[in-house]
Each structure stands twice: as C-alpha cells, then as structure tokens.
Prior knowledge:
By secondary structure, the chain is an alpha/beta fold. The chain folds into 2 domains: 4-162 and 325-358, Quinone Oxidoreductase, Chain A, domain 1; 166-303, 3-Layer(aba) Sandwich (Rossmann fold). It has 11 helices and 17 strands.
Amino acid sequence: MNDNTTIPTTMRALRLTTPGKFEIQDVKISHPGEGEVLCKIRAVAICGSDPEIIRGDLAGTWPPVYPFTPGHEWSGEIVEIGPGVHGFEVGDRVAGEAHKGCGYCINCLQGRYTLCLNYGNNEAGHRHYGFTSPGAYAQYNVYSIKSIKKLDDKVSFREGALVDTGGVTLHGMEIAGITPGGTVAVIGPGPIGMIAMQYAKALGAARVIMIGRGARLQAAKKFGADILINFENEDPVTAVMEATEQFGVNEVIECSGAAGTLNQSVRMVAKGGSVILMGVPSDKVIEPLPFKHIVHNEIAIFGSRANPNVSWKIIECIASKKVNVKDLITHTFPLEEFEKALDVFVNRKEGVIKVVIEPNGPEKE
Ligand SMILES: [Zn+2]
Ligand SMILES: [Zn+2]
C-alpha cells in the first residue's frame, strides 16, 4: 500500500511553453497507472539532445505538444506504486531509461525496444520519457517499471543520473564488439566518449586514442586515453595511421556526430575493423564515403540507438569502480537555476563535461 500523505499535490517542473521558451512552474503531480510507479527525481543530467528539444528544433516530434517537460537521464526513489507492480517497493532507489517499448512488436520481442515499431504511439504502450512522454526535469514523474533499474547502494543518485549515458555507450560497443588487446579510436571527448574510452579498456582494448580538441581533449587523459590527437593541429586519419604503424585501429567509436567524422572513421579503421556510430548528427549531415574502400576492406559500420538492456551492467560497473562517471559530473544545480545550468552546458563554460540538476535539493555526500 502507499503512503500518499507525504506526496504533495503539486510540484516544481521545467515546462517548455513554446519552441525556445521555458519556465519553472507549479504542475499537478500525476499518479501511477498499471505497471507504473511515481518517482521522486533526485538527479537528472543534461543530455546533448536536451538543448535541441528546448530550442524547439524538433517541435512536433520532440516534444509532440506544448507545454512539455523534457529530461531523461535521471535517478530517484519510488514514492508510490501503481496496480500490478511486482518487484519494486516504495523507497527503492532507481535509475531510469528513456525508452519503454510497446512490448509486442517484433523488435520489442527481440529485446530491441529502442527500435520499437510503435514508436511515439502512447496508446500502444510506447513511451519515450522526456521526448514524447513527460520527463524528469521535475520533482516527480511517473515511469513504467520496464524503464527503471534498482541502484546499488554504492552508486549515488548523481552517478545514477549517468546510467543512461553509460548505457548508450555500452550498447554500441556490445553491437560491434571490442577486440581484446586491440587499439580503439574514440572521436569526441564528451561524456559518451569519455565513458566509451573506459569501457573499451574494461572490455580488453590495450590502447585508446582520443580525438578532439581543447580542454575536453586534455581531460581525456585523466580518464585513461593513451594518445591524444588534436584535430585542429593535425589530420586525425594520418595521425591514427602513424600511431598504429599504418595498420589502423580495430574499432572507431564515433561520439561527436560532427560532419566529416564518419568519412574519417572508415579511413582510420583497420582492414576488417568496425566503426560504431554513437554521436547523433543533425539531419543536415550527409557524408561522402569511400565506397570501394569500405567494400574491399570489409569495414563494418554500426548505428547504435540509446541503451537497451544494459542499465544493470552500467550500475554494476559504477558500483565496482570499473567505470568512473563521478568525475564527469563537473556541475550540479537546483532546478530553479536551470537556465544557468543550460548556459554552462551549452556554451561549454568552466570546463564543463556533465551537468546534473537536483530537483529535490542537493544529495548529501
Ligand atoms: Zn541522453
Ligand atoms: Zn515495440
């Protein structure tokens, strides 16, 4: 049974009112339906996709309607249980996933629920929290139990907010595989790239080359990069080939989504190697590719979407210190200071890597 007495009727939430405009408003708290729980949001990380949604670049799709509350990289605790929920209790600490598939299309049945064929169809049971369904920049939000995983006691709420980012990374690497003893190139020293590098090592890569620029490239050293390549100073393909005695790298993990990097990736990967695409480019990025080179060298190119079936692995890796996400969190802000937080994140101020919002006050360390 639920102790509803401690749950207020309204909460503070970030509301996108029209494309490009937002306010922190008082909003009515929803209650869980069948198979759902109400969570008190403790930490929610700003994702690279959030500024796009906030600007309204994708209005009509993300979000489908206004007003809307975005936010999808979150952790918190369960405060109310809906009917038909088993295995979760009030007080459980959990981390969220953005995607909840319909559960019955052929992709969902194969566990590929981020490719649900009923994407965006709420009536079919699909949810994409923070994109097509209400998200986590709020004090409370309702989630399906399919989209939450219990947090290990050793994982803080702040770290829990990075389970999503970590999962995006691991999913792509699981699709393609990492060669034990091999060399991996990571393009883009943002949060995903920094975690990708650590995972590549955890999965057996002997060396990791990070390609980027500025303070973030320098920060990659702290997270285990063996070789840094600044693309402003040298051609990354030439530099990678030199660093690998013209062999190329076993895997390239593209985390930037920047124009030109897919072309670079297929030219710096070894014969028979794999290119894993995790960075999300804009629709305008159309890459010219060396078609014959790809065919004759059997280069595999993998797209990778979000983080299906990997959250528990990320939680275990954070708990056992295989992956350091804590030091990626450079800034924390209360929800009321969202505008400032967004400015720091978008404009890459103060050496920012990951910004975490705490809608219910700061976590005690
Ligand atoms: Zn995200
Ligand atoms: Zn489905």
